[in-house]
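fold-stage: in
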Amino acid sequence: MPEPFVRLTLPDLDALGLDWPDVSGLIAEYERLQAEHHKASATLDELLASRPVAIERDRESYAAAIRNAKPDPGETALAKLHTKIAGAARKAEAIAVATRAVASDIADLVDRRRSELLRDADRAVAEDYGTLREAVATWEAARARLHARRAVRAWVREFPGRTKYVPGAAPGLRALIAPNGDSVTFEELAQALRIDAEPAPVAEPASALR
């Protein structure tokens, strides 16, 4: 029975800045085999789709032989195609076997190193939350200063008719509308971003591979 192909969606650890070379190596091997399996499957599909053409070629050859009083040339085109189909199917199945083995190796490796990998991932997540909090604080300060400077511009334009410089409250965000139809205020959005920059408890999902 043909070996089923294991379809996994795996992370790009290098892009995420996670230095796990053994895991990354197996992921790279899996992705290479996945690409090879896709190519082998496409080749097999093309060969199977060309079967009617081979049958028609053999039919035409036989018809020509009959007209020329020659012996049956046999199903040569179909026989050649079947040889190619058998080879392509064998290759696709072998790649599927190899891919399943790599998937199993990834599962075993992650299982062995799970505690260590989780510690690394937790550290990376904590760093990202810190970066996010800094970004929110920077955004808050930049928008507050922007509003204050716009108030200075208005003061300059109207002075001395306008004797007081009053920045006032930061205006709402035009692109965000609250359920009541008003613009979301600066403070509402800032508070939402502050909450988003804090880690929330995450339920650990059960393993889907095993």
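fold-stage: in (second)
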Amino acid sequence: MLSLFVKIPLIWKIYTFIKKWGFSFLILFISIFLISYIHSEYISWIEVSGKKLFLGYSYVLKNILILICIGFFLLINFFKLKELKKLESIERNIDHTGSEKFKKLKAKRQSGELKSEYDRILEGSNDEK
């Protein structure tokens, strides 16, 4: 039972990490896999054909492409984090102003300044405030 309580927070952290970054990591790993696979096919083609065309350059190109993929991944996630922080701050402001507005309307309602449509009908007045 105790081990279950220890595992649940760990599982929850893994779940939130995968939910937040899983798709991005999946795209990154697929692109790195494709680059490595294409490079290995190129190397096997060179061995079969007997041509030694651009053998050293292919390793440099492969590593540059992998670094570009990682750079795009970090760049996209940097802007994603920036946007998430911006949205969280906006949500905090909205919640704060929403509760203040609710308190002001409740105070007006209790003081009698704010009347509902039913109150105006019962009083017989059609003035709107």
